[in-house]
From TrEMBL:
Catalytic EC class: hydrolase
Ranges in a coiled coil: none
Top-rank taxon, per record: Eukaryota
Gene Ontology CC, one term: extracellular space
Catalysis performed (reactions): (6S)-5,6,7,8-tetrahydrofolyl-(gamma-L-Glu)(n) + (n-1) H2O = (6S)-5,6,7,8-tetrahydrofolate + (n-1) L-glutamate
A Pfam family that the UniProt record links to this protein: Peptidase_C26
One GO BP annotation of this record: tetrahydrofolylpolyglutamate metabolic process
Family: Belongs to the peptidase C26 family.
List of catalytic residues: C142, H253
Keyword Secreted annotated: yes
Protein name: folate gamma-glutamyl hydrolase
Amino acid sequence: MVSPMGLLAVLGCCSLLLSLFSCSPVASFVWGSRLRAKNDRPILGVLAQESKYNKFQKFGSSYIAASYVKFLESAGARVVPIRLKLSDEEYDKIFQSINGILYPGGGASLVTSEYSRVAKIFYNKAIEANDKGDYFLVWGTCLGHELLSYLTSGKVLLSRTNTDGFALPLNFTTEAVKGSRLFKNFPDDILQTLATKPVTSNFHHWSLSKQNFTENKELRSFYKILTTNTYGGLECISTMEAYEYPIYGVQWHPEKSQFEWKDSPGIPHFPSAVRVAYYMADFLVNEARKSLHRFPSKDEELKALIYNYAPVFTGASSVFQQIYFFD
Ligand SMILES: *[C@@H]1O[C@H](CO)[C@@H](O)[C@H](O)[C@H]1NC(C)=O
Ligand SMILES: *[C@@H]1O[C@H](CO)[C@@H](O)[C@H](O)[C@H]1NC(C)=O
């Protein structure tokens, strides 16, 4: 572990940090530099979830908070909503057409929900495609991060934590400082902000402890821990990336600083917090740019895009300013 002060000391010596981030001989360095054509019109799927626990369910049986959509749009992507209850054929067609998928936060069951069922379909397709040399991003935020731990291990290994509604800095692991795909190109000031200022929004009741992660063979061999946070004495995984796949999980919410305005100490809006959010989106969208999946026709692309739906303003009585609803 590198403590904030320790990282700060390293950060104080910028050239050292730069060399740590750019010269580390980790596999991802070789892997990330594989020659690829770039797709500058990336389209990301954002997975819907059941509205069951959402008081706005009268607007539709499933929803996507608009902040996830804007987050991706802020860095140059377009979004296709991944609705629930489609057929396997329809999901396969969507998979072949989009460049990555984001599993948002929320309150759906990791085991029994449609959110989890559909996430698993895309996760399995992503693993298979990446194994064949394709590149397909899978990103989990908050519940999505917890879901990734379930999809990879087949087990719910979470602990109940009191972690709803505050912002924290991140504790970077030595591995993250030495070399991660996610953080290695972040500017020094952004890393310093992440390590020392309360810029990461925490709105969760469950967490993946480092102990449960480390004791599980599937998890520890699949993901590299990039950051942890200690909640009530329990050290938990707050950021992870898969060693061999473009699969990433963040327990915190990089989309909230820019796009959610519920009055909460958990949503920092100061300039460096917003800059952190942008760099997270930029990384994610750049991963999607490495995928050359595309819709078979312009017409099918237009019909699938989220622009066909209008978000509902829910900010007066919800944690979300705007929400997209689907039948
Ligand atoms: C590990 O996971 C189990 C659920 O499988 C949970 O009950 C337990 O609290 C977790 N332990 C730690 C230390 O996180
Ligand atoms: C960082 O790690 C230290 C040492 O384990 C811990 O005391 C501290 O609470 C952690 N900081 C955060 C923000 O989680």
